[in-house]
């Protein structure tokens, strides 16, 4: 900052009582700011960084802290940030004599790209360390957001298929044979390619979910009718988990816990709507399959759905750990994660699946077991991720993937639509409780990791709330 700007700042912060005549209205002078074009540039820079985080599923508190860190680094110390699920607004305060400068950006794109998120996190660190000027940072951000995905789209399709196969092994305990993971992988690959075509034609996501649920269920039911598959329920459940994995369970709970209720309500409304579309597709396919199949579908009984009994518990545990690691790694790969976050995500999935399996063997309720398992993942991820410069959000969301309640969702849908049993509503409520417990556990684990991380790295001075993305150091002013 030059001598002229410093002098202007001193004049702006003069005592109003010494310069304003008695009886005149009080005037509040704002802080010394750069020129107006620079202010607009900095506000847009902060908004675009926040947009990338929101599109990746980051919480509103993380986005708010990120934008305040960016604008403060470039000389805008008094900015107010308003984050809702579909838009971000930033207003730069300039005193009572001059209107504030306000910028708004609508968040339309929800495509998850963890490579882009990691690059933005690195850019944010350079900004807060005063290594880049505002124009340089803006140019770098433009390069990051316009860069293509790090690998072709078919690799993501293979990753989704691998995730479904891993989930099939996880749900069956390895007792479903070869056809179970093959069926789940084939159904998921077909769903992904069809969803890609529908997305190009701008079909609303509700109908995309319905088509995905119907296709996945139809493939499993057809293989069962042909005698190729003995457990169509588990194949459908694995495909349901893949379709649910991209939804913002973790972000919804983080926003609700940190007090951003409007954004939390928006995320939960989207979660409910997408789940409703999935339910519609699965129910339709089940109903048609049972009607057409007749006696060949008699064995499709919801009461027999469950984890296969394995004679050797140690073998079951090892399989679940490996399947959990593969599930999380495949999810991270499908979300375009770089190699190092990909490896850490796999470890997080192994920890989540192993912890959940141990608690299940100890007869702990499935809701509590899921909450404890994700708390462990959030705690470990909160400590490790920052030291390795990996977005904690990648580990959190990937670690939750193996535990999503796809099997409970399928049970509830089958009981309601095919068996006509009112117990299906109770099963669906259990699935919702599991999902909420998973999100809450991740947020709690990250919150508990902060004081430990503070002592390890001395990077924070106080607990500022759960942080899954954005700056680690808290802002100098409180984020109310």
UniProtKB/TrEMBL annotation:
<feature type="transmembrane region" description="Helical">
    <location>
        <begin position="425"/>
        <end position="449"/>
    </location>
</feature>
<feature type="transmembrane region" description="Helical">
    <location>
        <begin position="232"/>
        <end position="250"/>
    </location>
</feature>
<dbReference type="InterPro" id="IPR010619">
    <property type="entry name" value="ThrE-like_N"/>
</dbReference>
<dbReference type="GO" id="GO:0005886">
    <property type="term" value="C:plasma membrane"/>
</dbReference>
<protein>
    <submittedName>
        <fullName>Uncharacterized membrane protein YjjP (DUF1212 family)</fullName>
    </submittedName>
</protein>
<feature type="transmembrane region" description="Helical">
    <location>
        <begin position="271"/>
        <end position="290"/>
    </location>
</feature>
<feature type="transmembrane region" description="Helical">
    <location>
        <begin position="392"/>
        <end position="413"/>
    </location>
</feature>
<feature type="transmembrane region" description="Helical">
    <location>
        <begin position="177"/>
        <end position="194"/>
    </location>
</feature>
<feature type="transmembrane region" description="Helical">
    <location>
        <begin position="367"/>
        <end position="385"/>
    </location>
</feature>
<dbReference type="InterPro" id="IPR024528">
    <property type="entry name" value="ThrE_2"/>
</dbReference>
<keyword id="KW-0812">Transmembrane</keyword>
<dbReference type="Pfam" id="PF12821">
    <property type="entry name" value="ThrE_2"/>
</dbReference>
<dbReference type="GO" id="GO:0022857">
    <property type="term" value="F:transmembrane transporter activity"/>
</dbReference>
<dbReference type="Pfam" id="PF06738">
    <property type="entry name" value="ThrE"/>
</dbReference>
<dbReference type="GO" id="GO:0015744">
    <property type="term" value="P:succinate transport"/>
</dbReference>
<comment type="similarity">
    <text>Belongs to the ThrE exporter (TC 2.A.79) family.</text>
</comment>
<feature type="domain" description="Threonine/Serine exporter ThrE">
    <location>
        <begin position="326"/>
        <end position="445"/>
    </location>
</feature>
<dbReference type="InterPro" id="IPR050539">
    <property type="entry name" value="ThrE_Dicarb/AminoAcid_Exp"/>
</dbReference>
<keyword id="KW-1133">Transmembrane helix</keyword>
<feature type="domain" description="Threonine/serine exporter-like N-terminal">
    <location>
        <begin position="46"/>
        <end position="288"/>
    </location>
</feature>
<keyword id="KW-1003">Cell membrane</keyword>
<keyword id="KW-0472">Membrane</keyword>
<feature type="transmembrane region" description="Helical">
    <location>
        <begin position="206"/>
        <end position="226"/>
    </location>
</feature>
<feature type="transmembrane region" description="Helical">
    <location>
        <begin position="310"/>
        <end position="334"/>
    </location>
</feature>
């Amino acid at each position: 900052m030059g001598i002229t700007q410093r002098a202007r700042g001193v004049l702006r912060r003069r005592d109003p009582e010494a310069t304003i005549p008695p009886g005149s209205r009080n005037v509040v002078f704002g802080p010394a700011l750069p020129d107006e074009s620079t202010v607009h540039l900095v506000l847009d820079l902060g908004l675009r960084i926040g947009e990338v985080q929101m599109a990746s599923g980051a919480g509103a508190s993380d986005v708010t802290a990120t934008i305040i860190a960016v604008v403060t680094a470039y000389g805008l110390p008094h900015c107010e940030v308003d984050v809702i699920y579909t838009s971000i607004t930033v207003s730069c305060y300039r005193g009572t004599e001059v209107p504030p400068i306000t910028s708004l950006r609508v968040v339309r794109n929800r495509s998850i790209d963890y490579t882009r998120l990691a690059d933005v996190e690195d850019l944010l660190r350079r900004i807060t360390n005063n290594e880049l000027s505002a124009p340089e940072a803006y140019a770098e951000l433009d390069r990051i957001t316009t860069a293509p995905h790090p690998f072709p789209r078919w690799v993501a399709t293979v990753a989704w298929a691998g995730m479904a196969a891993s989930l099939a092994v996880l749900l069956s305990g390895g007792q479903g044979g070869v056809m179970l993971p093959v069926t789940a992988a084939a159904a998921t690959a077909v769903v992904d390619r069809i969803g890609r075509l529908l997305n190009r034609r701008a079909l609303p996501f509700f109908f995309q979910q319905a088509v995905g649920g119907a296709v996945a269920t139809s493939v499993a039911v057809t293989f069962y009718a042909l005698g190729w598959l003995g457990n169509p329920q588990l194949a459908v459940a694995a495909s349901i988990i893949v379709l649910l994995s991209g939804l913002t369970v973790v972000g919804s709970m983080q926003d609700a816990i940190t007090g951003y209720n409007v954004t939390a309500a928006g995320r939960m409304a989207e979660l409910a709507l997408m789940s409703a579309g999935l339910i519609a597709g699965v129910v339709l396919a089940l109903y048609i399959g049972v009607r057409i199949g007749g006696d060949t579908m008699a064995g499709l009984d919801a009461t027999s759905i469950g984890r296969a009994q394995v004679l050797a518990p140690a073998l079951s545990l090892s399989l679940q750990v490996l399947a959990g690691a593969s599930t999380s790694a495949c999810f991270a790969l499908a979300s375009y994660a770089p190699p190092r976050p990909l490896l850490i995500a796999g470890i997080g999935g192994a920890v989540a699946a192993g912890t959940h399996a141990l608690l299940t063997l100890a007869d702990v309720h499935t809701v509590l077991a899921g909450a404890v398992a994700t708390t462990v993942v959030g705690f470990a991820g909160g400590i490790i991720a920052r030291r390795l410069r990996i977005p904690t959000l990648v580990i959190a969301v990937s670690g939750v993937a193996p535990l999503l309640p796809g099997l409970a969702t399928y049970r509830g849908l089958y009981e309601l639509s095919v068996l006509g049993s009112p117990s299906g509503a109770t099963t669906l409520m259990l699935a919702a409780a599991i999902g909420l417990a998973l999100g809450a556990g991740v947020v709690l684990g990250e919150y508990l990791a902060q004081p430990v991380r503070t002592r390890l790295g001395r990077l924070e001075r106080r607990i500022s709330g759960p942080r899954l993305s954005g700056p680690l150091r808290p802002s100098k002013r409180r984020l109310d």
